[in-house]
Design goal:
single chain; alpha+beta; Gyrase A, domain 2; Alpha-Beta Plaits; Elongation Factor Tu (Ef-tu), domain 3; 3 domains; six-stranded mixed β-sheet; 11 helices; 20 strands
Length: 409
């Protein structure tokens, strides 16, 4: 029997309410999926575009990307991220299983604490990046990318079967995976988010520091899983919502002019300024976490002991250094986009490739990230980037490009 369950249960508080939940996913072959907020977006003037197999809002009404981006930096924006895959892993050997599946140290993670991590293939390449939240040693909440849904779920199924057939699981107990189908996920991001959300809850949000989560009461009779963090570099929260409650919660959280609905266009420029990776552009299965500058997600003791899938390739890069490294770039004259080649001055062969790039609305500069051969990755190194068949002066820059504003108490 498969250890994966596709369910609408997250907490027993919601079971009765979920019986009336509306299906948001399309079963028609080739048809874009929809989050529970699709109609809500249309009513609010969203321009919908295909993204990661979903129809998602690019922008709303006549509010442009730059204005929307700056509003999040100065006030607050609400993003629909319900296309992401939310899952619960549970069972007596869950911690050990996830420490085999990822290189992170989860046994030392405190309850209701989160960490960025990566799923690795046998060679140490990144299958996906993920946020892992520990509720208890035998229960973890895991969020993975929509664009990797089938790859991730197939990987989980295969590895669960392998794990549950092993001696530790036979001795201590199996691990099961519950996929939270059709659950909403909203990201409230920006410096005004905490003050606004505090008006809707009796929970003291000052105690919920970056990387922490809790079930908190919210006006209207909601009790929701809220995690402090996000994808913009600003203070913010990600709220997981049962299907039957998603529209009501979204309506509650939007409060113009302070909290504005924000689409994918601003989300992409915000995450780029924050130096955060987009899977499929900046990360892939041929890239190790060491090359990607994500060595910090690997537990200290695990950098020597290994014992996770892909450890050999990762530890080799730790010992010998990776052949290339992810870097930030400031590009003069014109914005560089995905696929632009990076050159050393006066050298014909490229030394790297841009993976994400564009104008920074906040800085007024052209920024990018990409990979260059090791040795060319140091801060301030002069390089050139080919944009529209012309080499533009550029320099290696540290990331994030814009200082983060996480709430750490």
């Amino acid at each position: 029997m498969s250890s994966i369950r596709f369910s609408q249960s997250f907490n027993t508080l919601y079971r009765a309410a979920l019986l009336s939940g509306r299906r948001g996913l399309s079963n028609a072959p080739g048809e874009l999926r929809r989050t529970a907020l699709y109609d809500f977006h249309i009513l609010n003037g969203a321009k919908m575009v295909p993204f990661a197999g979903y129809s998602m809002p690019l922008a709303y009404g006549n509010v442009g990307q730059v204005a929307s981006h700056k509003h999040v930096r100065e006030h607050a924006g609400l993003f629909d991220v319900g296309h992401m895959v939310q899952s619960i892993f549970r069972g007596p050997t869950t911690t050990e299983f996830l420490e085999w599946l990822t290189p992170s140290s989860l046994s030392g993670l405190q309850p209701y604490s989160s960490t960025l991590s990566v799923l690795l293939n046998e060679q140490g390449g990144i299958i996906d990046d993920t946020i892992i939240t520990k509720h208890s040693p035998d229960s973890f909440y895991v969020v993975t990318n929509a664009g990797r849904r089938e790859r991730d779920l197939d990987w989980f199924k295969t590895k669960l079967e392998e794990w549950n057939a092993g001696e530790l699981a036979k001795h201590k107990g199996n691990v099961e995976l519950e996929v939270l189908e059709d659950w909403g996920l909203l990201a409230l991001q920006g410096p005004d988010t905490a003050s606004y959300l505090q008006t809707l809850t009796s929970f003291d949000l000052r105690t919920l520091t970056f990387g922490k989560s809790a079930f908190i009461p919210i006006d209207g009779g909601f009790n929701l899983h809220v995690a402090r963090g996000g994808y913009t570099g600003e203070d913010g929260f990600e709220v997981s919502i049962p299907p039957s409650q998603t529209i009501d919660v979204a309506t509650l959280l939007v409060k113009p002019p302070t909290v504005q609905l924000t689409g994918l266009a601003a989300r992409d420029s915000l995450r780029l300024e924050a130096g955060m990776c987009l899977y499929g552009s900046d990360l892939d299965e041929d890239t190790t976490p060491i090359e990607a500058g994500l060595s910090w997600v690997i537990g200290k003791e695990r950098k020597t002991a290994g014992s996770f899938i892909g450890a050999e390739g990762v530890l080799k890069h730790i010992r010998e250094g990776p052949p290339r490294r992810r870097v930030g770039l400031i590009v003069d004259d014109a914005p560089a986009r995905h696929g632009a080649q990076i050159f050393a001055p006066d050298v014909a062969e490229p030394i790297g490739t841009v993976t994400s790039g564009g104008p920074s609305p906040w800085l007024g500069l052209n920024i990018a990230m990409g990979y260059v051969k090791s040795g060319w990755h140091k801060k301030g190194t002069a390089v050139e980037v080919s944009v529209r068949n012309k080499k533009r002066p550029a320099r290696i820059s540290p990331m994030p490009f814009v200082q983060t504003n996480y709430w750490r108490g």
